[in-house]
Amino acid sequence: QVQLVESGGGLVQAGGSLRLSCAASGRTFGTYAMGWFRQAPGKDRESVAAISWNGDNTYYADSVRGRFTISRDNAKNTVYLQMNSLKPEDTAVYYCAADQWGSGYGLRLSNKYDYWGQGTQVTVSS
Q1: CA distance 2 to 29
Q2: Fewest Cβ atoms nearer than 10 Å: which of 28, 57, 95, 113?
Q3: Mapping DSSP to helix (H, G, I), strand (E, B) and coil, where does residue 54 land?
Q4: Which of these, 68, 63, 62, lies nearest to 85 by C-alpha position?
Q5: How many CB atoms lie within 10 A of CB 57?
Q6: Is the pLDDT of residue 51 over 90?
Q7: β 4-7/78-83 pair status
């Protein structure tokens, strides 16, 4: 069982930055691919970024590529999402998720992830 706790959300003006963190419980964090997903009101959940269990693969949605960066620190059992040049359309609840041994194309698929955090709200004002 893996428990995930997101933090770092908040209100920011367009063009600003935020860094989300997701802290994981347990001693097997290094075996999990980690993904960030988001869901805006009235919209489906979408994949934002992900990193494979060994850090060799990353995935970014087209809408965030070049603005967001995902990274992981296995010593701290934490995955980060650095979000720069934020836009109002980035407003959503952001969730982190874990998929053991995840890699490759599966990184972008929400149904591959077994564990989810409770979410953190990101609001970007225009």
Answers
A1: 8
A2: 28
A3: coil
A4: 68
A5: 16
A6: yes
A7: unpaired
- E strand or H helix at 71: strand 68-73
68-90 tens-digit pLDDT: 999 999 999 999 999 999 999 99
What length does the chain have?
126
Q: What is the pLDDT of residues 11-42, one digit of tens each?
A: 999 999 999 999 999 889 999 999 999 999 99
Nearest one of 76, 79, 87, 85 to 32, comparing CA atoms: 79
- Pair of tokens at residue 53: 């269990």
SS3 per-residue string spanning 72-84:
EEHHHCEEEEEEC
Name the residue type at position 15.
G
> Do 47 and 60 form a contact (C-beta atoms < 8 A)?
no
Strand 120-125, strand 10-13: pairing: parallel
